[in-house]
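User: Hi! I have a protein structure encoded as tokens and I'd like to know what sequence might fold into it. I'm fairly new to this, so please keep things simple.
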């Protein structure tokens, strides 16, 4: 299951809101094959109706015992001989498909794939592999609509498991082992007094709620539309395996074949049946979502956090080098795709010929973190730090206190250079927009693409409510879609509106890495965006659901490379600047991103660590002990971050970037942009889990027949009028007549002909008023 990532809608069609639009969503499904739907007959109603796709063991027993004509069931064993290896697994999959076809041809309308009570010497076939293989076989035989495909397996337990099984063809799923575990917890009274029946019902309700959320990311409202849609991307599976068993699924980097999947299945079987003298061993804790001593390792280890904080607080370059060495070593241990890359040997240049740190840091931005999710102190500290070094901070989607728009008496600015326009539009006023150097339209968020945002009511104090024009104590919802962006044409209009409001600001659009993001980015560039941000799936927001943290979106390496290549092939690369973010931590990360096409680089979690974050993973609870992500006045007193800490990190990082550039023979970071030919794949041992990975698609450098391989220079905003508009905006003609009235605040009446080609009337006038008089206006 971990080899698949959820896909999601962005720009070209809207995701749905599974909470507030639940009324139009349905998990109802049917078993049976009605005749011609255009020929109404009573037989059309002869179906088995399921309220949702999660079957209890009792439900499955009832279906298995059915003797009704047209609804007889057969059970096929999902097992393969433990001594058969990958050949045995392949033969078992072929057998399953043939047996299912024979059963359906014989009139059995319920095919149950089961790994319960397998014979001795049989290991269970991975349920997803079996379901997809049987579904594909029945489709090719023209028999799929004649039967329901039910799964009885001990494997599925999470929402993503259920979504994958349904997405690859299952009609319904019985996660019997999960039910047994839930029942055992209830019997042992470890669920706070909840009984067995209620506990199982709660578990089913949680699965269904999660399934609706996953469906909504693609804008799909009914399970019958989602089943078999295969709206997933495979990462780490061989193309031959995908072509045979998951045909139609994208797999861009290759990976493991059937041999490795068989080996993993046999390893699990061996661990389950290994002799255990004495007491039963404790199961491993996993550590997939948070660091555990015996669990999966994470890039952000306790040692890494401590080293980075010591480096920036004491300005210790030696500690920073130790920090980056540790991160890079873990990255090379295949924590990331870029860990499998190496720099090709090149003719170096002297370090003193490389552009200075002061120029490089101007390409750095802080990630979008809202005023509300962060404490006021942390939010302002980041803005002050980035402004001091000529870089840009992103204020996130929560608005900004108007008191920060004006410089301090000493001239220092606390104003965030980048202002976000997200789906909730919190705090988005004319004054907010004209105070920005860049306006960013947030379409999706790396850690939870296709989902909205939510600031819990207990974090909405009086100040945040005032800034966001909301009510204190009331939870603030950002819906998954922008309800005014359902297409490329819609985002073009919003870009135009924002440009009319603040002609001096650049307009950027934030997208998340997935298959097809290059095509979306090309449309966004044609719509007039000056910048496109590609976010990786491993963003660090504290508000992301656990299933999204692991299973939604793709690494930025894939999305950035695809976007760079698509823009080059379409002659659009020179019209836009590319930015990337998503767990960038070291100079090596920055240079690899530049070689893949990025010109600017975003840092969010790393900046918070510099300010004192200790990765407690409780950002949404308002209990951050170091005062970074809380609105609690007592906890905010613990905030010890200073602008100098962020500045030290950025300068250390830029210095490391200079060293890599010198080693590669580049004198400026601009020279490195798009030079993916300077990267190569590190050879892997034949027995390694990454032996089958192929990064040739990422490292491909297409010719640019229609445009130079350079982007617009930094700071160059696109023209304030739309290139498709033949006449100047109406506001341009009206402003000379209104200038005196705006200055003196005297009423004035102007008559003009408003035509349907005037796409934004009054917008630029509102911007001029806000720039002259601030939030109070006239």
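Assistant: Happy to help. Inverse folding works backwards from shape to sequence: for each of the 778 positions I chose a residue that suits the local structure. Here it is:
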């Amino acid at each position: 299951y971990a080899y698949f990532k959820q896909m999601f809608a962005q720009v070209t069609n809207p995701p749905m809101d599974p909470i507030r639009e639940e009324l139009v969503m349905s998990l109802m499904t049917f078993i049976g094959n009605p005749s011609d739907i255009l020929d109404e007959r009573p037989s059309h109603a002869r179906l088995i109706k399921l309220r949702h796709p999660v079957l209890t063991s009792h439900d499955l027993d009832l279906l298995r015992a059915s003797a009704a004509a047209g609804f007889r069931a057969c059970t096929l064993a999902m097992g393969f001989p433990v001594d058969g290896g990958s050949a045995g697994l392949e033969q078992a999959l072929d057998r399953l498909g043939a047996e299912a076809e024979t059963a359906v041809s014989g009139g059995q309308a319920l095919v149950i794939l089961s790994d319960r009570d397998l014979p001795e010497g049989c290991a269970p076939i991975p349920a997803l592999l079996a379901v997809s293989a049987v579904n594909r076989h029945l489709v090719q035989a023209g028999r799929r609509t004649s039967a329901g495909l039910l799964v009885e397996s001990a494997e599925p337990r999470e929402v993503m498991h259920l979504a994958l099984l349904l997405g690859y063809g299952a009609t319904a799923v019985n996660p019997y082992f999960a039910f047994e575990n839930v029942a055992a917890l209830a019997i042992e009274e470890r669920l706070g007094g909840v009984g067995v029946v209620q506990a199982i019902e709660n578990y089913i309700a949680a699965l269904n709620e999660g399934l609706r959320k996953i469906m909504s990311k693609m804008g799909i409202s009914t399970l019958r539309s989602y089943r078999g849609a295969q709206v997933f991307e495979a990462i780490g599976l061989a193309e031959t395996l995908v072509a045979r068993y998951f045909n139609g699924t994208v797999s861009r980097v290759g990976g493991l074949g059937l041999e490795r999947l068989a080996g993993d299945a046999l390893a699990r079987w061996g661990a389950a049946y290994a002799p255990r003298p004495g007491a039963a061993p404790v199961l491993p804790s996993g550590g997939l979502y948070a660091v555990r001593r015996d669990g999966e390792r994470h890039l952000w280890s306790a040692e890494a956090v401590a080293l980075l904080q010591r480096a920036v607080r004491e300005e210790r370059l030696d500690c920073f080098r130790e920090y980056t060495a540790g991160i890079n070593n873990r990255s090379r241990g295949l924590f990331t795709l870029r860990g499998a890359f190496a720099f090709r040997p090149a003719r170096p240049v002297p370090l003193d010929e490389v552009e200075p740190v002061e120029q490089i840091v101007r390409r750095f931005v802080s990630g979008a973190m809202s005023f509300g999710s962060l404490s006021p102190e942390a939010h302002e500290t980041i803005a002050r730090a980035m402004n001091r070094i000529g870089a840009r901070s992103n204020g996130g989607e929560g608005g900004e206190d108007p008191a920060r728009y004006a410089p301090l008496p000493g001239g220092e600015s606390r104003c965030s250079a980048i202002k976000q326009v997200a789906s909730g539009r919190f705090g988005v006023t004319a004054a907010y927009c004209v105070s920005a150097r860049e306006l960013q339209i947030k379409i999706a968020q790396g850690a939870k693409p296709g989902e909205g945002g939510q600031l819990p009511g207990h974090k909405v104090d009086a100040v945040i409510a005032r800034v966001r024009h909301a009510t204190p104590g009331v939870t603030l919802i950002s819906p998954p879609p922008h309800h005014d962006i359902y297409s490329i044409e819609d985002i073009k209009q919003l870009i135009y509106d924002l440009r009319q409001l603040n002609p001096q600001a650049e307009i950027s659009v934030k997208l998340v890495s997935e298959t097809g993001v290059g095509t979306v980015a090309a449309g966004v560039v044609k719509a007039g965006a000056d910048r496109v941000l590609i976010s990786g799936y491993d963003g660090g927001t504290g508000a992301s659901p656990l299933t999204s943290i692991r299973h939604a979106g793709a690494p930025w390496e894939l999305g950035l490379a695809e976007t760079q290549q698509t823009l080059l092939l379409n002659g659009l690369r020179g019209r836009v600047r590319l930015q990337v973010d998503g767990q960038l931590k070291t100079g090596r990360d920055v240079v690899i991103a530049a070689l893949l096409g990025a010109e600017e680089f975003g840092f969010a979690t790393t900046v918070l660590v510099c300010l004192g974050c200790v990765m407690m993973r409780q950002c949404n609870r308002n209990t951050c002990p170091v005062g970074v992500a809380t609105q609690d006045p007592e906890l905010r007193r613990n905030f010890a971050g200073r602008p100098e800490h962020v500045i030290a990190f950025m300068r250390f990082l830029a210095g490391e970037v200079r060293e890599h550039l010198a080693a590669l023979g580049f004198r400026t970071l601009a020279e490195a942009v798009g030079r993916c030919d300077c990267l190569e794949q590190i050879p892997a041992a034949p027995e390694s889990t990454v032996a089958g990975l192929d990064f040739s698609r990422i490292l491909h450098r297409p010719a640019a027949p229609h445009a130079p391989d350079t982007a617009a220079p930094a700071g160059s905003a696109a023209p304030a009028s739309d290139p498709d508009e033949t006449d100047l905006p109406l506001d341009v003609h009206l402003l000379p007549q209104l200038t005196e009235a705006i200055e003196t605040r005297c009423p004035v009446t102007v008559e003009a002909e408003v035509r349907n080609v005037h796409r934004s009337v009054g917008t630029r006038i509102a911007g001029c008023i806000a720039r002259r008089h601030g939030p109070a206006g006239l």
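A useful reference point when you look it over: Confidence is low (pLDDT under 50) at residues 706-721. Feel free to ask if any position seems puzzling.
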